[in-house]
Amino acid sequence: MQAEIIAVGSEMLSFGREESNSLAITQYLTRFGIRLGRKLVVPDDAAQIGEALAQALERADVIVLTGGLGPTNDDCTREAVAERLGRGLEENPQLLAALIKQYRRFKIHLSDNNRRQAHVIAGAQVIPNNRGTAPGLLLQEQGKSIFLLPGPPRELLPMLEEAVESLLAQLANRLPRAERQLQVVGLAESRLDQEIEDIYLSYPDIETTVLSSTGVISLHFILQENGDAQAHRLDELVGRIREKLGPAVFSDRGEQLAEVTGRLLAQRGWSLAVAESCTGGMMGAMITDVSGSSTYFAGGVLCYSNSVKTRLLGVKESDLLQGGAVSEPVARQMAVGVQAQLGTDWGLAITGVAGPTGGTAEKPVGLVYLGLSGPFGSEVRKLQLPGDRMAIRRRAAYSALDLLRRRIIQ
Amino acid sequence: MQAEIIAVGSEMLSFGREESNSLAITQYLTRFGIRLGRKLVVPDDAAQIGEALAQALERADVIVLTGGLGPTNDDCTREAVAERLGRGLEENPQLLAALIKQYRRFKIHLSDNNRRQAHVIAGAQVIPNNRGTAPGLLLQEQGKSIFLLPGPPRELLPMLEEAVESLLAQLANRLPRAERQLQVVGLAESRLDQEIEDIYLSYPDIETTVLSSTGVISLHFILQENGDAQAHRLDELVGRIREKLGPAVFSDRGEQLAEVTGRLLAQRGWSLAVAESCTGGMMGAMITDVSGSSTYFAGGVLCYSNSVKTRLLGVKESDLLQGGAVSEPVARQMAVGVQAQLGTDWGLAITGVAGPTGGTAEKPVGLVYLGLSGPFGSEVRKLQLPGDRMAIRRRAAYSALDLLRRRIIQ
Asked: Which pLDDT value is given to residue B231?
């Protein structure tokens, strides 16, 4: 089965506005083996919407339109689709009653434009909208399925989960495809691919996707069928890749690195403190993004200036003068210092040259030292990280969290 | 003039992959008054590319294709366009020589597929690619302009700036439009719009766009012509809006809030330290995102646990016990404490309930206290912030930076 997405809305064609709904829709489509054939953004223009729909019907089995169902003057998707298919629009009494209730609650006058949201294209199935006023619609035409879904993500995303997913399952007449994922840290994408290419290429029936973002890589493995045999085959591939990559794999459930590292600490009743120089709080922010992190995260010291390194963390002034702030002894003393100062089980430290200025021949931009101090003593890791200021900082924070994670599971 | 964008690449139709090039291209188009009529993502399929081009030629004056110019087997944009327009492909000797040189440098064999990157559609103008192997092309057809641009953003973005911008200026035969922008903090989008709607609606010739992201709003004002009269009119509108919004406007140059607050500190020779509880380092990360922030930012304390608040910042245990960590006295003592502890001119503190758990009837999720201590004494601000955990944390950090900024410029 093949699908096309038509996103309707003039605002998505002006500068600075993204079209993001299609990413969520694609996720649901591919879950049932429905391939996305193309996607299109058109303005709020009935003629263009109608024409795009007609062309999509020539190619695709499933057409998903989003946006243009609301109460404002320019919203015209419902009317454009009805006209193009030569179908009438009927006012649905239940929808109208619900609409009147909603508008009364917000003390807004129900104008004729507002009232259009209770109109249903003849023969269409209504998809309830629990977060807004305009329902979704599903219709069949020439043996093909056409979805009309609302544009605002806060209405669309719950509707996808609550209703569209099961409708797609019915259309595709199947279970969701079988899939697995792995999250990997500490390997460049090209290096990772070299390592595992031979393995996943020997499973040509499994679709392997490598999604890379700064510092972390997601691997997705998909089989278009689902059953015991498929599950077994996926588990076999995933098992071989886990074996090959070893501790570089940190999750098989799409978790954040800070979440996994935090859980390892919590399971052992350990507490953590951080000392951040070049990352300036980024690692602390990652750790505390996780709700419940207070059970293991005590806090830390942002020692952007050298005087904070000496005053709060006890870093020796002589070491700062001799080797500079970006050096092995300073990273170690930061970790040991923050652990002692906050009285935690672990101290984790980052000091580096994030750039774009401040690099030297001896200490180039991207040079980072990580310090770790814990129940088993202290250690330092030296890294040379690629990318711009933001990328170096993100990679440094991920690398530090990863260093702690590997030390715990070792 | 009207444009359409056709992004070519099957990978952009698979899950998890965004199409982002069109956002950058739209920025350049609108700069010369060229409106985007629609945008489309098609797979690497010559028939579909050719058909999409033919249809776009019926509607638009400028068609921009991106992607599919590279050396791999599935790259076929160049060939598809040539075929659809009935034009030949010629090997360009200069391009071939450059290509041979590049491939020799990287010790890669120049296959026939690689060699296609030196092919030029008959009559096309070559747009140099200084970051990759496939050049861009510009051709005229039926009085319309067709751009073929590379897909990788690291090649495309510099090409837009270095070559495409001036080509668009020639095509549109005009200067860039006149535009202004303002960055606003501390107002909800609906409230902001209420405040300024009467003003901008009285300039119907100026296009006003409100782009909102969590905590910060950008206002863009555009006049499609450019000259002294237009500049004067834009300045008048911007002046009236600045007057209305007062200190809520923090930049007219698209700067980050932390950049502006930092510059105010630097200009006065002041230093800053932060104490972060619920934000866990997010404010420090924002401050140190700015290169050169070490001239005014000393660092700070992440006091996620209460014991860090007392041990490192001198917050009174009695106040923590009586009023809790999210309270007026604790916020004040955090600010005073970090200022004293780090010996800075200013101390800025955040304590709050970020959620999703931990809220009570008395202290609901979103309750945040900001503390500020500086040359003029100390103060505390109580906020009730909307949104999820991430939004509350971001809004808290922006609000704190804004509190300091307003105190300095007051």
From this structure: 92
**Residue B346 burial (CB < 10 Å; 0-12/13-18/19+)?**
buried
Tell if the CB–CB gap between B357 and A291 is shorter than 8 Å. yes
In a 10 Å sphere around its CB, with 0-12 CB exposed, 13-18 middle and 19+ buried, how is residue A255 labelled? Answer: middle
Contact at 8 Å (CB) between A199 and A240?
yes
B40, B278, B299: residue with CB nearest A38: B40
ipTM value: 0.90
pLDDT for A143 equals 94
Quick one: tokens of A209?
């996707």
Total length of chain B: 410
What does pTM read for this prediction? 0.90
User: Cα–Cα–Cα angle for B351, B355, B359, nearest 5°?
Assistant: 85
Whether residue B13 and residue A357 make contact (CB cut-off 8 A), yes or no, is no
Burial class (CB in 10 A: 0-12, 13-18, 19+), B202: exposed
CB atoms A38 and B43 under 8 Å: yes
- B 344-363 residues inside an 8 A Cβ radius of A: 354-357
Q: What pLDDT score was predicted for residue A146?
A: 98
What local confidence, expressed as pLDDT, does residue A112 receive? 84
Residue-wise DSSP of B320-388:
HHHH-SSSHHHHHHHHHHHHHHHT-SEEEEEEE---SS---SSS-TTEEEEEEEETTEEEEEEEE--SS
Query: In chain B, what residues touch A292 (CB-CB under 8 Å)?
Result: 357
Query: Distance (Å, rounded) from C-alpha A203 to C-alpha A208?
Result: 9
Which tokens is A351 given? 């000091």
pLDDT at A326: 98
Overall size of chain A counted in residues: 410
Instruction: Please give the pLDDT value at position A180.
Output: 95
**Which region, left, alpha or beta, applies to residue A283 given φ > 0 means left and ψ of -120 to 50 means alpha?**
alpha
Q: Does A27 touch chain B (CB under 8 A)?
A: yes
Subunit contact B302:A279, Cβ cutoff 8 A: no
From the centroid of its chain, how far is CA B1? 26
Phi, psi for A26 (deg, rounded to 5): -60, -40
Residue B103 has pLDDT above 90, yes or no: no
Contact B308 A298 (CB under 8 A): yes
Q: Are A8 and A44 in contact (CB under 8 A)?
A: yes
Q: CB–CB of A207/A222 below 8 Å?
A: yes
Residue partners of B212: CB distance under 8 A and separation at least 6:
B189, B218
pLDDT tens digits for range A304-319: 999 999 999 999 999 9
Out of B18, B36, B393, whose CB is closest to A23?
A: B18
Chain B residues 41-70 with CB within 8 Å of chain A = 41-43, 48
Q: Which two tokens stand for residue A31?
A: 């879950």
- DSSP, residue by residue, B93-129: HHHHHHHHHHHHHTT----HHHHGGGEEETTPEEE--
How does pLDDT run across A146-181, given as a tens digit for each residue?
999 999 999 999 999 999 999 999 999 888 889 999
Digit-coded pLDDT (tens) for A246-257: 999 999 999 999
Give the residue-averaged pLDDT of B74-99.
Answer: 95
Contact of B400 with B282, CB cutoff 8 Å = no
